[in-house]
Amino acid sequence: MLPMQFKKFTVFLILSFFLLLSNAFSAPLVKGIYLTQSTMEDTPYLNYLIQHSKEVGINTFIVDLERPSTRYHNNISLLKKNNITYVVRIIMFPGGGTKTQVRTPAYWQKKYDLVQQAVDWGADQVQLDYIRYNTLQPGSSQNAKDIHQIIQWYKQRLASQKVPLQLDIFGIASFGPSIYIGQDIQLFSSSADVICPMVYPSHFEPFRKHAVTPYDTVYSALSAIKEQFPDDKVPFKLYPYIELSNYRYSLSHDQRLKYIVAQIRAAEDAGADGWYVWSPNNEYDNLFHVLETNQMK
């Protein structure tokens, strides 16, 4: 009996070792919040956000950079000191690009100067938003090819510095290419390290239906992205943007909390690698409350 017991014990130890090893190397979910440049420069409020973010497991700040400033630069050290990933967000074409802007490399370079400044200051990743045509552009399959050319241009420069590239994508593009704004997740996938679909329920029509079914809205959009690839295996990290409130549909305080919970659950149930939360005024107390009180369980 002793040899058999010894064998069983040995197998148990081996299995336990590999389980611990697997847990040690499994990446935690990326959990991030969006900050404007003015919030980044507001040192007391930035410290408030850092403190509460650390308490609830938020590990990433996505921060606008529109113009270099000394205070912005100095406050990056606060993120680094607290082990918070600094992702710089660059608005490529405010409101969406015109054909002239999209096809002018000098315009790309102007925006890239901001990117390079952030990288020199220690940006861990770069996120491009409004990387698309404006909504008035005539529909054409060429539109996405034009946008992809810009993405490739950025990717080549960032890859040489080993800085990952993130792309913000309209929620509607989760279900297939948008020929007007020129966003095509399948096409972009070869040049993006991270795709951030903005799956805000307020952005889908009919908006009243989606406002009261946030889980279904987010889950179906993320599932549709996966379905665009063989075996539902996307070749990039997937960090969807969700929203703290629905600007098109009035919600009570309790409803807003449930709205947040539903979107986060949907992102995690859909197998996303993490999630980002969007609040235009950078007020995240409702998010902190939801996470502090373990309402995700």
What would you say about this model in short?
By secondary structure, the chain is of the alpha/beta class. The protein has twelve helices and nine strands.
Q: How would you describe what is shown here?
A:
Strands 7-6-5-4-3-2-1-9-8 form a nine-stranded parallel β-sheet. 38% of the residues are buried. The chain is built from twelve helices and nine strands. α3 packs parallel to α4 and α10 (214-226) runs parallel beside α11 (253-269). With 297 residues, it is an alpha/beta fold. It starts with a helix and ends in a 5-residue tail after the last helix.
Shape: globular
Strand portion: 5-15%
Q: Topology as H/E string?
A: HEHHEHEHHEHEHEHHEEHEH
- Average predicted local confidence, pLDDT: 92
Low-confidence parts, pLDDT < 50 over ≥5 residues? 15-25
Question: Whole-Å distance between the termini?
Answer: 44 Å
Strand order of the largest sheet: 7-6-5-4-3-2-1-9-8
Number of strands: 9
- Rg, nearest Å: 21 Å
| Total of DSSP H or I helical runs spanning 4+ residues | 12
Major sheet summary line: 9 strands, parallel
From the helix content, strand content and strand pairing, which structural class follows? alpha/beta
Overall helicity: 40-55%
SSE inventory with pairings:
Layout: H1 2-25, E1 30-35, H2 37-41, H3 43-56, E2 60-64, H4 70-81, E3 85-91, H5 99-102, H6 105-120, E4 125-129, H7 141-159, E5 165-170, H8 185-188, E6 194-198, H9 207-211, H10 214-226, E7 237-238, E8 241-243, H11 253-269, E9 274-278, H12 285-292
Parallel strand pairs: 1-2, 1-9, 2-3, 3-4, 4-5, 5-6, 6-7, 8-9
